[in-house]
Amino acid sequence: MKPETIEAPGVRLRLVRDNDAADIETACNDGDVRRFLPSLPQPYTRDDAQRFVRDGATEAWATGGGIYAIADPATDRLLGTIGVHHVDNDRAQGEIGYWVAPWARGKRVATTATKALAAHAFAEGFDRLELLTAWENAKSVRVALAAGFQSEGARRGAARNADGTRREVAVFARLVGDPGEPVKRLLPDLPGGQLTDGVLTLRPVAPADADFYFDLLSTPDIIASHVPPVAPDREEIQLRCERAQTRWLLGERADLVMVDAATGAPAGDIGLYYQEPMTGQAMIGYCVHPAFRGRRFATRASVLLGRWVFANTGIGRLIAGTNPSNAGSQKVLEAAGFLREGYQRSRLPGLAGGRIDDILWAVLPGDLRETT
Protein backbone atom coordinates (compact mmCIF):
# COMPACT_ATOMS: atom_id res chain seq x y z
CA MET A 1 0.00 0.00 0.00
CA LYS A 2 1.01 3.61 -0.48
CA PRO A 3 1.78 5.54 2.74
CA GLU A 4 -0.61 8.42 2.15
CA THR A 5 -2.98 10.34 4.39
CA ILE A 6 -6.59 9.08 4.44
CA GLU A 7 -9.34 11.47 5.47
CA ALA A 8 -12.59 10.17 6.99
CA PRO A 9 -15.41 11.75 9.02
CA GLY A 10 -13.97 12.61 12.41
CA VAL A 11 -10.57 10.92 11.92
CA ARG A 12 -7.44 11.23 9.84
CA LEU A 13 -5.19 8.27 9.08
CA ARG A 14 -1.60 9.45 8.76
CA LEU A 15 1.89 8.11 9.33
CA VAL A 16 3.01 7.67 12.92
CA ARG A 17 5.53 10.28 14.06
CA ASP A 18 8.14 10.74 16.75
CA ASN A 19 5.89 13.14 18.66
CA ASP A 20 3.25 10.37 18.95
CA ALA A 21 5.54 8.35 21.24
CA ALA A 22 4.24 9.78 24.52
CA ASP A 23 0.62 9.02 23.65
CA ILE A 24 1.55 5.56 22.36
CA GLU A 25 3.36 4.82 25.62
CA THR A 26 0.37 5.91 27.70
CA ALA A 27 -2.18 4.02 25.61
CA CYS A 28 -0.17 0.80 25.49
CA ASN A 29 -0.10 0.69 29.29
CA ASP A 30 -3.91 0.87 29.43
CA GLY A 31 -5.53 -2.26 30.85
CA ASP A 32 -7.90 -2.91 27.94
CA VAL A 33 -5.16 -2.48 25.34
CA ARG A 34 -2.86 -4.79 27.27
CA ARG A 35 -5.59 -7.39 27.78
CA PHE A 36 -6.18 -7.89 24.09
CA LEU A 37 -2.61 -7.27 22.92
CA PRO A 38 -0.75 -9.54 25.37
CA SER A 39 2.43 -9.54 23.26
CA LEU A 40 3.16 -5.91 24.16
CA PRO A 41 6.20 -5.41 26.43
CA GLN A 42 5.26 -5.00 30.08
CA PRO A 43 5.59 -2.28 31.12
CA TYR A 44 5.47 -0.49 27.79
CA THR A 45 8.19 2.17 27.85
CA ARG A 46 8.94 5.29 25.86
CA ASP A 47 11.75 3.36 24.16
CA ASP A 48 9.21 0.73 23.09
CA ALA A 49 7.01 3.45 21.63
CA GLN A 50 9.89 5.05 19.77
CA ARG A 51 10.96 1.66 18.45
CA PHE A 52 7.42 1.08 17.17
CA VAL A 53 7.45 4.43 15.37
CA ARG A 54 10.93 3.88 13.94
CA ASP A 55 10.96 0.16 13.12
CA GLY A 56 7.50 -1.38 13.43
CA ALA A 57 5.83 0.93 10.97
CA THR A 58 8.71 0.64 8.51
CA GLU A 59 8.53 -3.17 8.55
CA ALA A 60 4.77 -3.10 7.92
CA TRP A 61 5.14 -0.93 4.84
CA ALA A 62 8.00 -3.09 3.56
CA THR A 63 5.79 -6.22 3.55
CA GLY A 64 3.01 -4.67 1.50
CA GLY A 65 0.85 -3.59 4.40
CA GLY A 66 1.09 -0.48 6.52
CA ILE A 67 0.51 1.17 9.87
CA TYR A 68 -1.31 4.44 10.38
CA ALA A 69 -1.88 6.71 13.31
CA ILE A 70 -5.57 7.39 13.85
CA ALA A 71 -5.50 11.13 14.51
CA ASP A 72 -7.97 13.85 15.45
CA PRO A 73 -8.31 15.96 12.27
CA ALA A 74 -8.70 19.14 14.34
CA THR A 75 -5.78 18.75 16.78
CA ASP A 76 -3.72 16.01 15.08
CA ARG A 77 -3.48 14.21 18.44
CA LEU A 78 -3.08 10.44 18.23
CA LEU A 79 -6.30 8.55 19.00
CA GLY A 80 -4.99 5.06 18.22
CA THR A 81 -3.29 3.08 15.49
CA ILE A 82 -4.57 0.87 12.69
CA GLY A 83 -2.84 -1.17 10.05
CA VAL A 84 -2.87 -3.98 7.54
CA HIS A 85 -0.64 -6.88 8.58
CA HIS A 86 0.09 -10.50 7.60
CA VAL A 87 -0.15 -9.70 3.92
CA ASP A 88 -0.41 -12.62 1.50
CA ASN A 89 0.32 -11.13 -1.90
CA ASP A 90 -0.53 -14.33 -3.79
CA ARG A 91 -4.04 -14.22 -2.35
CA ALA A 92 -4.31 -10.42 -2.32
CA GLN A 93 -5.22 -10.74 1.35
CA GLY A 94 -4.35 -8.95 4.57
CA GLU A 95 -5.45 -8.61 8.18
CA ILE A 96 -6.65 -5.38 9.78
CA GLY A 97 -5.68 -4.68 13.38
CA TYR A 98 -6.16 -1.62 15.59
CA TRP A 99 -6.24 -0.21 19.08
CA VAL A 100 -7.89 2.95 20.39
CA ALA A 101 -6.53 5.10 23.20
CA PRO A 102 -8.66 5.50 26.36
CA TRP A 103 -9.30 9.20 25.64
CA ALA A 104 -10.85 8.41 22.24
CA ARG A 105 -13.24 5.57 23.09
CA GLY A 106 -16.98 5.75 22.61
CA LYS A 107 -16.71 7.97 19.53
CA ARG A 108 -16.80 5.31 16.77
CA VAL A 109 -13.14 6.02 16.06
CA ALA A 110 -12.24 2.36 15.41
CA THR A 111 -15.28 1.77 13.17
CA THR A 112 -14.64 4.87 11.05
CA ALA A 113 -10.93 4.12 10.75
CA THR A 114 -11.56 0.47 9.84
CA LYS A 115 -14.03 1.40 7.09
CA ALA A 116 -11.66 4.02 5.71
CA LEU A 117 -8.62 1.74 5.72
CA ALA A 118 -10.58 -1.15 4.19
CA ALA A 119 -11.74 1.07 1.31
CA HIS A 120 -8.18 2.26 0.77
CA ALA A 121 -6.78 -1.29 0.84
CA PHE A 122 -9.33 -2.52 -1.69
CA ALA A 123 -8.49 0.40 -3.96
CA GLU A 124 -4.82 -0.61 -3.66
CA GLY A 125 -5.51 -4.14 -4.91
CA PHE A 126 -6.51 -6.23 -1.90
CA ASP A 127 -9.37 -8.68 -2.54
CA ARG A 128 -9.94 -9.92 1.00
CA LEU A 129 -9.38 -8.44 4.45
CA GLU A 130 -9.63 -10.36 7.71
CA LEU A 131 -10.23 -9.06 11.22
CA LEU A 132 -9.41 -11.40 14.09
CA THR A 133 -10.44 -10.64 17.65
CA ALA A 134 -10.69 -12.32 21.03
CA TRP A 135 -14.11 -13.82 21.73
CA GLU A 136 -14.17 -11.80 24.94
CA ASN A 137 -13.61 -8.51 23.09
CA ALA A 138 -17.22 -7.58 22.37
CA LYS A 139 -16.29 -3.98 21.54
CA SER A 140 -14.04 -5.18 18.72
CA VAL A 141 -16.79 -7.51 17.47
CA ARG A 142 -19.10 -4.50 17.28
CA VAL A 143 -16.49 -2.66 15.22
CA ALA A 144 -16.12 -5.59 12.82
CA LEU A 145 -19.86 -5.88 12.22
CA ALA A 146 -20.36 -2.10 11.93
CA ALA A 147 -17.55 -1.93 9.36
CA GLY A 148 -19.18 -4.59 7.18
CA PHE A 149 -17.03 -7.58 8.16
CA GLN A 150 -19.02 -10.83 8.25
CA SER A 151 -18.49 -13.53 10.82
CA GLU A 152 -16.72 -16.63 9.53
CA GLY A 153 -16.50 -18.62 12.75
CA ALA A 154 -13.49 -19.37 14.90
CA ARG A 155 -9.81 -20.13 14.37
CA ARG A 156 -8.38 -22.39 17.04
CA GLY A 157 -5.04 -21.49 18.58
CA ALA A 158 -4.59 -18.55 16.22
CA ALA A 159 -3.32 -16.13 18.88
CA ARG A 160 -0.78 -16.39 21.65
CA ASN A 161 -1.26 -15.38 25.28
CA ALA A 162 1.36 -13.64 27.37
CA ASP A 163 2.31 -16.96 29.02
CA GLY A 164 2.91 -18.66 25.68
CA THR A 165 -0.34 -20.63 25.59
CA ARG A 166 -2.59 -20.24 22.59
CA ARG A 167 -6.20 -19.09 22.35
CA GLU A 168 -9.07 -19.25 19.90
CA VAL A 169 -10.14 -16.11 18.05
CA ALA A 170 -13.30 -15.02 16.27
CA VAL A 171 -12.83 -14.48 12.54
CA PHE A 172 -14.45 -11.76 10.45
CA ALA A 173 -13.80 -10.96 6.81
CA ARG A 174 -14.78 -8.53 4.09
CA LEU A 175 -14.33 -9.05 0.35
CA VAL A 176 -13.67 -6.38 -2.21
CA GLY A 177 -17.18 -6.79 -3.64
CA ASP A 178 -18.99 -6.63 -0.30
CA PRO A 179 -21.19 -3.56 0.18
CA GLY A 180 -19.42 -2.42 3.34
CA GLU A 181 -22.68 -1.64 5.11
CA PRO A 182 -23.09 -2.72 8.75
CA VAL A 183 -23.87 -6.41 9.06
CA LYS A 184 -27.51 -6.85 10.01
CA ARG A 185 -27.81 -8.38 13.46
CA LEU A 186 -30.33 -11.12 14.19
CA LEU A 187 -30.53 -10.19 17.88
CA PRO A 188 -30.43 -6.43 18.61
CA ASP A 189 -29.44 -4.85 21.90
CA LEU A 190 -32.03 -4.53 24.64
CA PRO A 191 -33.64 -1.07 24.99
CA GLY A 192 -31.72 0.67 27.75
CA GLY A 193 -29.69 -2.49 28.24
CA GLN A 194 -32.38 -4.44 30.11
CA LEU A 195 -35.98 -5.66 30.25
CA THR A 196 -38.16 -5.23 33.34
CA ASP A 197 -41.76 -5.51 34.51
CA GLY A 198 -41.05 -3.78 37.81
CA VAL A 199 -40.77 -7.05 39.71
CA LEU A 200 -38.13 -8.84 37.65
CA THR A 201 -35.32 -7.43 35.52
CA LEU A 202 -33.44 -9.23 32.76
CA ARG A 203 -29.96 -8.04 31.84
CA PRO A 204 -27.24 -9.53 29.64
CA VAL A 205 -24.73 -11.87 31.25
CA ALA A 206 -21.33 -10.28 31.99
CA PRO A 207 -17.93 -11.78 32.91
CA ALA A 208 -18.48 -10.77 36.56
CA ASP A 209 -21.44 -13.18 36.75
CA ALA A 210 -19.24 -16.29 36.61
CA ASP A 211 -19.32 -16.97 40.37
CA PHE A 212 -23.10 -16.66 40.49
CA TYR A 213 -23.50 -18.94 37.48
CA PHE A 214 -21.23 -21.59 38.92
CA ASP A 215 -23.25 -21.59 42.14
CA LEU A 216 -26.57 -21.59 40.26
CA LEU A 217 -25.68 -24.36 37.84
CA SER A 218 -24.20 -26.52 40.62
CA THR A 219 -27.62 -26.86 42.27
CA PRO A 220 -28.55 -30.58 42.19
CA ASP A 221 -32.00 -30.28 40.60
CA ILE A 222 -30.64 -27.82 38.02
CA ILE A 223 -27.83 -30.23 37.18
CA ALA A 224 -30.50 -32.88 36.60
CA SER A 225 -32.03 -30.70 33.88
CA HIS A 226 -28.71 -30.06 32.12
CA VAL A 227 -28.06 -31.58 28.70
CA PRO A 228 -26.33 -33.85 29.56
CA PRO A 229 -27.09 -33.88 33.32
CA VAL A 230 -23.55 -33.37 34.65
CA ALA A 231 -22.06 -30.79 37.04
CA PRO A 232 -20.62 -27.69 35.33
CA ASP A 233 -16.93 -27.07 34.82
CA ARG A 234 -15.67 -23.81 36.41
CA GLU A 235 -13.52 -22.86 33.42
CA GLU A 236 -16.37 -23.55 31.02
CA ILE A 237 -18.69 -21.29 33.05
CA GLN A 238 -16.09 -18.51 33.01
CA LEU A 239 -15.73 -18.75 29.24
CA ARG A 240 -19.49 -18.77 28.80
CA CYS A 241 -19.83 -15.53 30.75
CA GLU A 242 -16.87 -13.87 29.03
CA ARG A 243 -18.11 -14.75 25.55
CA ALA A 244 -21.82 -14.13 26.11
CA GLN A 245 -21.80 -10.64 24.60
CA THR A 246 -20.11 -11.84 21.42
CA ARG A 247 -22.54 -14.76 21.05
CA TRP A 248 -25.37 -12.23 21.31
CA LEU A 249 -23.79 -9.90 18.74
CA LEU A 250 -23.41 -12.82 16.32
CA GLY A 251 -27.07 -13.77 16.76
CA GLU A 252 -26.35 -17.23 18.15
CA ARG A 253 -27.82 -16.89 21.62
CA ALA A 254 -28.83 -14.34 24.23
CA ASP A 255 -27.94 -15.17 27.83
CA LEU A 256 -29.63 -13.09 30.53
CA VAL A 257 -29.52 -12.92 34.31
CA MET A 258 -32.82 -12.77 36.17
CA VAL A 259 -32.50 -10.01 38.76
CA ASP A 260 -34.85 -9.32 41.68
CA ALA A 261 -35.89 -5.74 40.86
CA ALA A 262 -36.46 -4.91 44.52
CA THR A 263 -33.01 -5.88 45.77
CA GLY A 264 -30.81 -6.09 42.65
CA ALA A 265 -29.81 -9.64 43.59
CA PRO A 266 -29.25 -12.18 40.80
CA ALA A 267 -32.00 -14.78 40.98
CA GLY A 268 -31.65 -17.04 37.96
CA ASP A 269 -30.90 -17.41 34.28
CA ILE A 270 -32.84 -17.43 31.04
CA GLY A 271 -31.35 -18.05 27.61
CA LEU A 272 -32.55 -17.64 24.04
CA TYR A 273 -30.97 -20.03 21.55
CA TYR A 274 -31.46 -18.99 17.93
CA GLN A 275 -30.91 -22.35 16.30
CA GLU A 276 -33.10 -21.93 13.22
CA PRO A 277 -32.81 -18.44 11.69
CA MET A 278 -34.03 -19.82 8.35
CA THR A 279 -37.37 -20.86 9.88
CA GLY A 280 -37.61 -18.07 12.45
CA GLN A 281 -37.68 -20.47 15.38
CA ALA A 282 -35.70 -20.21 18.61
CA MET A 283 -35.65 -22.01 21.96
CA ILE A 284 -35.64 -20.75 25.53
CA GLY A 285 -34.31 -22.37 28.68
CA TYR A 286 -34.26 -21.11 32.27
CA CYS A 287 -33.46 -21.92 35.87
CA VAL A 288 -34.07 -20.14 39.17
CA HIS A 289 -31.90 -20.20 42.28
CA PRO A 290 -33.62 -22.05 45.17
CA ALA A 291 -33.66 -18.87 47.27
CA PHE A 292 -35.96 -17.15 44.76
CA ARG A 293 -38.39 -19.92 43.87
CA GLY A 294 -42.11 -19.58 44.41
CA ARG A 295 -42.16 -15.99 43.11
CA ARG A 296 -43.05 -16.80 39.47
CA PHE A 297 -39.71 -15.41 38.27
CA ALA A 298 -39.35 -18.05 35.53
CA THR A 299 -42.81 -17.25 34.15
CA ARG A 300 -42.15 -13.51 34.26
CA ALA A 301 -38.80 -13.99 32.53
CA SER A 302 -40.32 -16.14 29.79
CA VAL A 303 -43.01 -13.54 29.07
CA LEU A 304 -40.59 -10.59 29.22
CA LEU A 305 -38.14 -12.25 26.87
CA GLY A 306 -40.88 -13.54 24.57
CA ARG A 307 -42.47 -10.12 24.12
CA TRP A 308 -39.10 -8.55 23.29
CA VAL A 309 -38.26 -11.36 20.87
CA PHE A 310 -41.50 -11.16 18.91
CA ALA A 311 -41.39 -7.35 18.71
CA ASN A 312 -37.72 -6.90 17.81
CA THR A 313 -36.43 -9.93 15.90
CA GLY A 314 -37.41 -12.14 12.99
CA ILE A 315 -38.35 -14.95 15.37
CA GLY A 316 -41.96 -16.03 14.92
CA ARG A 317 -42.04 -19.08 17.16
CA LEU A 318 -40.46 -19.94 20.51
CA ILE A 319 -40.09 -23.49 21.73
CA ALA A 320 -39.05 -25.04 25.04
CA GLY A 321 -38.55 -28.55 26.35
CA THR A 322 -39.21 -30.13 29.72
CA ASN A 323 -38.38 -33.42 31.31
CA PRO A 324 -41.66 -35.37 31.70
CA SER A 325 -41.05 -35.49 35.47
CA ASN A 326 -40.46 -31.74 35.78
CA ALA A 327 -43.99 -30.62 36.68
CA GLY A 328 -42.74 -27.25 37.94
CA SER A 329 -41.27 -26.25 34.60
CA GLN A 330 -44.40 -27.38 32.80
CA LYS A 331 -46.49 -25.09 35.02
CA VAL A 332 -44.10 -22.20 34.23
CA LEU A 333 -44.59 -22.63 30.50
CA GLU A 334 -48.35 -23.05 30.73
CA ALA A 335 -48.59 -19.87 32.82
CA ALA A 336 -46.54 -17.97 30.23
CA GLY A 337 -48.83 -19.11 27.39
CA PHE A 338 -46.84 -22.01 25.89
CA LEU A 339 -48.86 -24.91 24.52
CA ARG A 340 -47.80 -28.53 24.69
CA GLU A 341 -47.19 -29.79 21.15
CA GLY A 342 -45.64 -33.20 21.47
CA TYR A 343 -43.78 -35.92 23.33
CA GLN A 344 -40.30 -36.69 21.98
CA ARG A 345 -39.01 -40.09 23.02
CA SER A 346 -35.30 -40.42 23.93
CA ARG A 347 -34.57 -36.98 22.53
CA LEU A 348 -31.82 -35.92 24.95
CA PRO A 349 -28.60 -37.54 26.16
CA GLY A 350 -28.57 -38.77 29.75
CA LEU A 351 -25.97 -40.40 31.95
CA ALA A 352 -23.95 -43.50 31.07
CA GLY A 353 -25.21 -43.58 27.50
CA GLY A 354 -28.86 -43.33 28.48
CA ARG A 355 -31.50 -41.18 26.81
CA ILE A 356 -34.17 -38.86 28.22
CA ASP A 357 -37.66 -38.16 26.89
CA ASP A 358 -38.63 -34.53 26.26
CA ILE A 359 -41.97 -32.72 26.10
CA LEU A 360 -42.10 -30.06 23.36
CA TRP A 361 -43.79 -26.72 24.11
CA ALA A 362 -44.27 -23.73 21.81
CA VAL A 363 -45.61 -20.19 21.95
CA LEU A 364 -46.62 -17.77 19.18
CA PRO A 365 -46.83 -13.97 19.53
CA GLY A 366 -50.53 -13.97 20.38
CA ASP A 367 -50.22 -16.72 22.97
CA LEU A 368 -48.17 -14.91 25.60
CA ARG A 369 -50.09 -14.10 28.78
CA GLU A 370 -50.01 -11.13 31.10
CA THR A 371 -48.15 -11.57 34.39
CA THR A 372 -49.34 -10.11 37.68
UniProtKB/TrEMBL annotation:
Keyword line: Transferase
Matches recorded under PROSITE patterns: GNAT
PANTHER family in the cross-refs: ACETYLTRANSFERASE (PTHR43441:SF10), RIBOSOMAL-PROTEIN-SERINE ACETYLTRANSFERASE (PTHR43441)
Highest taxon, organism lineage: Bacteria
Protein name: RimJ/RimL family protein N-acetyltransferase
Source species: Asanoa ferruginea
Domain N-acetyltransferase: start-end pairs: 11-178, 200-366
Molecular function in Gene Ontology: protein N-terminal-serine acetyltransferase activity; protein-N-terminal-alanine acetyltransferase activity
Record keyword Transferase present: yes
Lineage, highest ranks first: Bacteria, Bacillati, Actinomycetota, Actinomycetes, Micromonosporales
Pfam family, one: Acetyltransf_3
Gene Ontology cellular-component annotations: cytoplasm
InterPro entries attached to this UniProt entry: Acyl_CoA_acyltransferase, GNAT_dom, Ribosomal_N-acetyltransferase
